[in-house]
């Protein structure tokens, strides 16, 4: 069965950095767009960014210039480097896989999801 596992979350002060990892198994990683989403208590799940299967990254306006996604297909892993963190970045972060995905902003287009990792940014 396909598995996606997020790691790297934690507690950090505003202005600090964290790097999240999304490790996949039992899928052909290079065929999948890998998206990052986040959800804070009482709020809707929102798109953070994505690494497209055929190259290139996209980001939500709220994280542009602060977050960077990188992909290592040989390791079946995608990273989300988060810099200059703000309290409003506090959320559970999820990675998701969308085969040959192009409509990467839409959560319901993704085939597989991880269980999430908590990021808490204190002010």
Supply the key terms.
globular, four-stranded antiparallel sheet, seven-stranded mixed sheet, single chain, 123 residues, mainly beta
Describe the fold and architecture.
The protein is mainly β. It is built from no helices and 11 strands. The strands form 2 sheets. Strands 2, 4, 5, 6, 9, 10 and 11 form a 7-stranded mixed β-sheet that branches. The chain has a 4-stranded antiparallel β-sheet with strand order 1-3-8-7, with no helix packed on it. Strand 4 and strand 5 form a beta hairpin. The termini are far apart.
How do the strands and helices of this protein lay out in sequence?
Layout (H helix, E strand, L loop, with lengths): L2 E5 L2 E4 L4 E8 L6 E8 L6 E6 L5 E3 L7 E6 L4 E6 L8 E9 L12 E2 L3 E6 L1
Parallel strand pairs: 2-11
Antiparallel strand pairs: 1-3, 3-8, 4-5, 4-9, 5-6, 7-8, 9-10, 9-11
Describe the biggest sheet?
Answer: 7 strands, mixed
Q: Give the helix proportion (percent range).
A: under 10%
Radius of gyration from the alpha-carbon trace, in angstroms: 13 Å
First CA to last CA: what distance? 40 Å
What structural class do the secondary elements suggest?
mainly beta
Low-confidence stretches: none
β-strand percent reads: over 45%
- Topology order in helix (H) and strand (E) letters: EEEEEEEEEEE
Q: What's the rounded overall pLDDT mean?
A: 95
- Work out the number of β strands: 11
Shape: globular
Number of helical elements: 0
